[in-house]
Amino acid sequence: MNDLVNAWRERIRAASAAQEPLRIVGGGTKDFYGQELVGERFDTAAHRGVVDYDPTEMVITARSGTPLIEIENALARERQMLAFEPPHFGSNATLGGCIAAGLSGPRRPYTGAVRDSVLGVRMLDGRGDDLSFGGRVMKNVAGFDVSRLIAGSLGTLGVILEVSLKCLPCPKVELTIAQEMKAGDALRRFNEWGGMPLPLSGASWYRDRAFVRLSGAESAVASAARRVGGEALPDAVAFWADVREHRHAFFSEHDVPLWRVSVRSTAPQPPVGGESMIEWGGALRWLYTATPDGGPTVRAWAAEHGGHATLFRGNDKSAGVFQPLPAPMLALHQRLKVALDPVGIFNPRRMYAAF
Questions:
Q1: What's the pLDDT score for residue 273?
Q2: How many CB atoms lie within 10 A of CB 13?
Q3: Full domain range(s) for residue 292
Q4: What's the pTM value of the predicted model, to 2 decimals?
Q5: What CATH number is given to the structural domain containing 212?
Q6: Residues ≥6 apart with Cβ < 8 Å to 288
Q7: Alpha-carbon distance 266 to 112, whole Å?
């Protein structure tokens, strides 16, 4: 693997000298996400393999091109899992792409986001330098935690070589219960249950039906199920996998812009037409809106309720995929970009036109 990394370093240096952009690609399953795809393709899938995994420490370190399913299978054999339940969106999903996209699944409000699991990152910056941040244990993370900034950066800061992640034990028991409920009632109940000592690991709503997943010891799950009420959902594993991977019926509409809106869990339903789905106990809203002013309305509503809106899927990205940043925050992003990628060769304009 050293020969491959050395070849990558030389390629980056040549691209930097010529000011030619590079488009970093793992499995390509999330190419739809973000703004423009600019630059010569830079494949990372060949850099693969688990570097170190100690189940007793619950930490795994693997190369960026390692298939995500390979990581999850290795953990499952030891009855462990990735806490943030990442979506794959295809069989070719890689660990590097998972970290770069920064997307989390239904478990996110209860076990943390992608960046919360990242302990360390090894990467190549825009000068071709081999850099390491963080480490393989929690106590190594101190000061300005660059490793967690890489999560969700969409490859704009460098080429990920290796990632160290903390893992969690798989729950002994999981049960999903469903009950008929209007959206407003579901939001109220989700927040009530979230304030109780219940073993929640998923809370979703779609078409007047609420779904709650409970995970933990058998006695705790049984007690919580009695308190929450409802009926056990058959094929619950498939249900949550379909929500996570966007195979659920809600995500079948591909001709209408799909918005991913992160807000306070107590926010009411947004004043826009189109179908919606609630996730994360109310903190994540998926919305379809085809009206001309749908984007500005959604973003204004998200800001009003302490969040932001992302155009997750849509053909017209002229208004920007991500919520515009305030000037001071944009300046900070630009300074970080310049520090790690001085010439701006990595995935330019993938997040914002300014970098």
A1: 77
A2: 15
A3: 253-313
A4: 0.94
A5: 3.30.70
A6: 253, 256, 257, 258, 259, 274, 275, 276
A7: 19
Predicted confidence (pLDDT) per residue in 22-42, tens digit = 999 999 999 999 998 999 999
Phi/psi of residue 53, each to 5°? Answer: -150, 115
The alpha carbon of 314 is separated from its chain's Cα centroid by a whole number of angstroms, namely: 18
Closest to 319 (Cα-Cα) out of 340, 299, 336 = 299
CA-to-CA distance for 93 and 99, rounded, in angstroms? Answer: 11
Q: How many residues are there in the chain?
A: 355
C-alpha distance from residue 152 to each of 20, 72, 97 (Å): 23, 20, 9
According to DSSP, the residues that pair with 315 across neighbouring strands are none
Query: Do residue 159 and residue 228 come from a single domain?
Result: no
- 178 closest CA partner among 123, 134, 137, 235: 235
What is the tens place of the pLDDT at every residue in 223-238? 999 999 999 999 999 9
Find all residues with CB under 8 Å of 77, minimum gap 6, and list them.
none
